[in-house]
Amino acid sequence: MSSIFLRGVRDGIPIAMGYYAVAFSLGIIAGNAGICALAGFAGSFFTRASAGEYGVYTLVAASAAYAEVVGMSLVTNLRYLLMSTALSQKFGEGVSLLKRVLVSLCVTDEIFGISIAYPGKLAPAYTFGAALVSTVFWASGTASGIIAGDVLPANVVSALSVALYGMFLAIIIPPSRKDRAVGMAVVASFFLSGMCAVMPVVSELSGGTRTIFLTIIISAAAAVCKPVGNDEYGD
């Protein structure tokens, strides 16, 4: 069992290194929102979701209501429910319910990727090892970004704060170029976000509430207009 755990740690190290760099930029944004390093470390340790945490820190900076923060987290992190369901099919019959739940709490996009690719039945120890090292680096990166934001010159902090937006662009541009439906959804999100910011009544809603509604509406419309068939998953 220990060898499987160490294998997970080994496979998780490249993920951890990438996590640290992204989380550092996230920490700059968290620091601007008034989050301390200890709170940032704890938040990232238990959340591990760049888009979700960014949304939360943005809402915190805007003094949003707790309901908006919870709603934002649920919408942006809903995909992990689907990933956890998929991983549940990889376990052997002897895996306890507790271990299944713990594995689901370890799921991120990258951890899911290496876990679903694990040969044969998935050993929970493998996911635990990969999640442990990557989580520590992710949380440490956030805390480091917050600390750096307190000591670096204002112009440097301002420059670093836009690095996370670059990551988001790197995420959405390749699939947008590959799939026209995804590209149209991205364009629609930009257009409708701008429209909602100036439209009567809608513009009076907080930014977090508008984002939640637009995410649900655009994703639902895309699912209805361009459903994903089984063949696109390789089945």
Q: What keyword list fits this structure?
A:
77% helix, 235 residues, mainly alpha, 12 helices
Structural class: mainly alpha
H-E string? HHHHHHHHHHHH
Between the first and last Cα atoms, what is the distance in angstroms? 32 Å
Stretches where pLDDT is under 50 for at least 5 consecutive residues are: 230-235
C-alpha geometry: globular
**Helical percentage:** over 70%
Number of H- or I-type helical stretches: 12
Based on CA atoms alone, the radius of gyration comes out at 19 Å
- Please give the largest β-sheet: none
Strand fraction: under 5%
Summarize the structure.
This protein has 235 residues and is mainly α. It is built from twelve helices and no strands. Helix 1 runs parallel beside helix 8 and helix 11 packs antiparallel against helix 12 (207-225).
Report on this model:
The protein has helices at 2-32, 37-47, 50-61, 66-76, 79-87, 97-106, 109-116, 124-151, 154-160, 163-178, 180-198, 207-225. The protein is mainly alpha-helical and 235 residues long. The radius of gyration is 19 Å and the shape is globular.
Blueprint of the fold:
Blueprint lengths: L1 H31 L4 H11 L2 H12 L4 H11 L2 H9 L9 H10 L2 H8 L7 H28 L2 H7 L2 H16 L1 H19 L8 H19 L10
